[in-house]
Amino acid sequence: MLTMISLPTLVSFAILLTPSKVIDAFHAPSSHHLSKPIIRDVALHGHADHRGGSSRRNFLDAIATGVATTCATTAGLTLPTNANAAEDEGLIDVYFGCGCFWHVQHEFVQAEKRILNRSDDELTARAGYAGGKAGALDGKVCYHNFNRVSDYGPLGHAEVVSLRIPPSSYKEFAVEYTKLFDKNGFRPDQAGDKGTEYRNLVGFPGGAKSEVYLKALVEASKENGDKLAFAEGLGDDPDRRALVFVMDSDAFSPFVAEQYHQFHDGFAMGEGYPQSYNDIAFKLAKAGTLGKSDCPNGMI
């Protein structure tokens, strides 16, 4: 059973721990300036990373039709005990952010196929944006573009991948998320893609107030090296190594990214995926399940 332990008001951190853990609220750097509790059960050493490297910001692939829609979220308070009753238990909308969404989407597409036995037509993983206080501007959230139309960066959003999954499968998907980080809590692209647009965050109904999903997330982290700390997301949160912001997906809904970002090859050298994977975007767009918006086409 996880317990929230409140500390004196002059300390802006509280710890979410299992009884066997030692309370340690003072490893968080003062530069964090978080007004909500740190949620975790590992010691927090989340300093910003300053390693060098090339950024995906300097790279744009071929331009295709811009697409963006808002994903609705639904509440889910308890996890069914029978994981095989997936389609009978209803679905929840969740999202995961860990740097560039290209690689992250690929990993969650594979997870959907493996965990839920979904076909290409049934896939729900979408690259998108979430976590900003501003929400949408003029009804949309877009990638960087020449005229700065509804740019997700200034709106405070980060790159995420959204999914619609059975509540009972949440922990399995959380496990896949924690696998994205190395033993020191670095993202795959941490050396290049840094800043709030690439911060670590997860979203599920209720956010940090949902003990069920939060417990599943923390347990998933513990099972994969106990390398992450968690904090309640307030929106427009900072980028910190090994620190994941927990968002309420009802309050911070995700916005689907443009079509040319969907089912894209990874940014790392040699991280090309099969053409059959890339073609899923066009297949879903043709079926009308990818959504559309007036976002500019790339940098145009």
What does this structure look like?
This protein has 300 residues and is of the alpha+beta class. It has helices at 101-116, 170-178, 211-223, 275-278, 280-287, and strands at residues 3-5, 15-17, 38-39, 92-97, 126-130, 158-165, 201-204, 229-232, 243-248, 255-256. The strands form two sheets. It has an eight-stranded mixed beta sheet with strand order 3-8-9-7-4-6-5-10, covered by helices on one side. Helix 1 (101-116) runs antiparallel to helix 2 and helix 2 (170-178) crosses helix 3 (211-223). 44% of the residues are buried.
Main structural class: alpha+beta
Cα-to-Cα separation, first versus last residue: 52 Å
Spans of at least 5 consecutive residues whose pLDDT stays below 50 are 1-36, 40-85
Cross-sheet strand order for the largest sheet:
3-8-9-7-4-6-5-10
| Percentage beta strand | 5-15%
Largest sheet: 8 strands, mixed
Q: Got a strand count? A: 10
Succession of helices and strands: EEEEHEEHEHEEEHH
Please render the helix and strand layout as text.
Elements: E1 3-5, E2 15-17, E3 38-39, E4 92-97, H1 101-116, E5 126-130, E6 158-165, H2 170-178, E7 201-204, H3 211-223, E8 229-232, E9 243-248, E10 255-256, H4 275-278, H5 280-287
Parallel strand pairs: 7-9, 8-9
Antiparallel strand pairs: 1-2, 3-8, 4-6, 4-7, 5-6, 5-10
